[in-house]
Amino acid sequence: EKGGWDSFMDKEIHEDPAAVQRTLLGRLNRNGDLNLDEVHIDEHDFKAVDKIIVIACGTASYAGMVAKYAIEHWVRIPVEVELAHEFRYRDPILTPRTLVVAISQSGETMDTLMALRHAREQGSKVLAICNTQGASIPRESDAVLYTHAGPEVAVASTKAFVAQITAAYLLGLYLAQVKGAMFRDEIHQVLDSLKHMPAKIQWVIDTQSGTISDAAKRMVDAKSFLFLGRHVGYPVALEGALKLKEIAYTFTEGFAAGELKHGPIALVDDGEPVVFIVPPERGRNVLHAKVISGIEEVRARGAFVIAVAEKGDPDVERYADVVFWRPQCPTLMSPLVDVVPLQLFAMDMAKLKGYDVDKPRNLAKSVTVE
Ligand code: F6R
Predict the structure, then answer these.
(1) Which one of 14, 205, 210, 309 is most buried, counting C-beta atoms within 10 A?
(2) What is the pTM of this model?
(3) Percent of the chain with pLDDT over 90
(4) Which residues are catalytic, by number?
(5) What distance in angstroms lies between residue 102's CA and the mean position of ligand 1's atoms?
């Protein structure tokens, strides 16, 4: 039940912190090392993994894209992310050392299920990251790592997304641990940052909701939105664009901010709303300055800039029209917080337009047809 909220989407966004926390729970042993015995893949098989291919659709594929940045950095093996319906009809290069990771909230998405069969037929092991116990995708996989977001009822995926990133990060850190790709202390440090994320997400919900609903009121008549980010901010931009189009029926496009001058800047006109995901670690992350210069470029063409940025970021204070602040956190952790204001913004926009946020037109919660 909705437990006092006006919609399931409202309730589920407010469960983002708990979804991350519950997905971390019980996966560390007494020494603070990761223990993923529950997935029933032999440690030797994990050690042998030399490539990961993530297959998923929609929001789940964006969680996979976020994980690619982290896992390649931590484990130093290539990670590809592919839409399940594309993967299925190609002739992918798979070996017994390729780990295919199928990410799915419902565990029933037909395209993802068919893609995992395609991978298994060719001798690869498939690990499912899934939110639904006993669904078809985990049943047909070699192994499963459950996200413990709790049942997600609203059609638009919210808490499942942050739980999927968390689970994929645990998988990456576990691979780093068994392959000796990182020092034990480094892994513990990352796990520590992960443990701090639920409180940071909560801070966004508690302190930014007012700014977000005011922004939605100001923007409710906008015909289109662009969403831009780089590195892990890129999949967050794609997810923010998807949320807004699917529930508020506003035309949106998300893309990598570096692409601006390769075409999309032509769309920027007076008053065009552009949402930027500004990376944290100003001064240490070279991409921070690049994103800021993207903001300056669109501002010069009259865009209305909405930024998701670190609290007190002086460059953002100078150039953005509206800011959704995030607390300090490492770059790889930022997607877990940055998506939250975008989920709230999409919900507020849809409500202002009078739409049913839980049941957007033309969409189903699990897509069991191809
Ligand atoms: C977007 C959304 C969809 C799903 C996609 C995959 O809000 O809900 O894009 O993410 O249909 O669904 P699952 O994760 O159930 O495989």
Answers:
(1) 309
(2) 0.97
(3) 89
(4) 365
(5) 12
Cβ within 8 Å of residue 333, ≥6 positions away: 193, 194, 197, 200
Distance 58 CA to ligand 1 centre (A): 5
pLDDT digits (tens, 9 = 90+) for 216-261: 999 999 999 999 999 999 999 999 999 999 999 999 999 999 999 9
Does ligand 1 lie within 6 Å of residue 109's CB atom?
A: yes
Q: By three-state DSSP, how is residue 96 classified?
A: coil
Decide: 175 in ligand 1 pocket, CB within 6 A: no
Own/partner contacts of 115-118, CB < 8 Å, gap of 24 or more, are: 115/55, 115/84, 115/85, 115/87, 115/88, 116/55, 116/84, 116/140, 116/141, 118/87, 118/88, 118/92
- Candidates 8, 57, 242: which one to mutate for ligand 1, based on the most atoms within 8 Å of Cβ? 57
ipTM above 0.95, yes or no: yes
Whether 157 lines ligand 1, by a CB cut-off of 6 Å, is: yes
Is the pLDDT reported for residue 206 higher than 90?
yes
